[in-house]
Amino acid sequence: MSDIKLNVEGLNVHFVNGHRHTHAVRDVSFTLGREKLAIVGESGSGKSTVGRSLLKLHPPSARLCAKAMRFDGIDLLTASENVMRKVRGQRISMVMQDPKYSLNPVVKVGEQIAEAFLAHHKASRREARERVLEMLAKVHIRDPQRVYNLYPHEVSGGMGQRIMIAMMVITRPEVIIADEPTSALDVSVRQQVLGVLEELVEQQQMGLIFVSHDLNLVRNYCDRVLVMYAGRVVESLAACDLHHAEHPYTRGLLAALPSMDNRRERLPVLQRDPLWLTC
């Protein structure tokens, strides 16, 4: 790995709600270069919270602390809101999980992508429209002129995800955080969306943080994997070496995957050890 873009050391995230205190992310550390890094784990393990922390997208009740959280010389932890506005969208983009909830239902999708472009570039509306049409074609949407004028409810799930990718990539960011971008898609459409992301990452030399719960997917798609349990990173290894995982949690997740080659009447239930919370 070369050209480190992100360096995170000892990230902790706390949520405070009245007298209730939740320690959601515990001492997470990693680096990101020009690569595809997966963060995997069960729901509630803290993987999406890590991604949102990088852009400081948490509510006021969140408390972030870390030894380091740096991006290209910028201390994200102490950066002002003015600095973060220049980072969000333009240099680090985040593809949300479901376009139905991420796109404005009353604005045409092309205009929403153009708005994202104009927020970070000085250009005319005409120039922005041309750039949007180019980007829609780049994410393999046929007839970009027609799709530009559609509303979100008029597009399919797969097309909606490609539109979201176009919106996040049109600013040519250096890092993309993709938060389970294919979880609601069928297999054929999922492969198309993954292909689009991979093509853009390679063409624009970006770093990708791929948040997922699908171990089989990240094993074949990503370069490295961080496995999270209860807010902690319990294992970090190359994606191609997942079958050599050593932590019992990772091995338990892999054992619970169904297999066409190894048919079982009942999949095993993951047995958790309280010690995983402390070591």
How would you sum up the global shape?
globular
Q: Taking all residues together, what is the mean pLDDT?
A: 90
**Structural category:** alpha/beta
Strand line-up of the largest beta sheet: 7-8-9-3-10-11
SSE order, one letter for each helix or strand: EEEHEEEHEHHHHHEHEHEEH
Number of helices: 10
Termini separation comes to 27 Å
Report the β-strand fraction as a percent range.
Answer: 15-25%
Rounded Rg: 19 Å
Unreliable spans are: none
Description:
The chain is an alpha/beta fold. It is 34% helix and 24% strand. It has 10 helices and 11 strands. The strands form 2 sheets. It has a 6-stranded mixed sheet with strand order 7-8-9-3-10-11, with helices on both faces. A hairpin with a 2-residue loop joins β10 and β11. α4 packs across α5, α4 packs parallel to α7 and α5 packs across α7. The protein is globular and about 60 Å long. It starts with 5 loop residues before the first strand and ends in a 24-residue tail after the last helix. The mean pLDDT is 90.
List keywords for this structure.
10 helices, 6-stranded mixed sheet, 5-stranded antiparallel sheet, 279 residues, alpha/beta
Question: What's this model, at a glance?
Answer:
The chain has 279 residues and is α/β, with parallel strands linked by helices.
Topology:
Blueprint: E1 6-17, E2 20-32, E3 36-40, H1 47-54, E4 62-65, E5 68-71, E6 74-75, H2 81-87, E7 92-95, H3 99-102, H4 109-118, H5 125-138, H6 144-148, H7 157-169, E8 175-179, H8 187-204, E9 207-212, H9 215-221, E10 224-229, E11 232-238, H10 248-255
Parallel strand pairs: 3-9, 3-10, 7-8, 8-9
Antiparallel strand pairs: 1-2, 1-4, 1-5, 5-6, 10-11
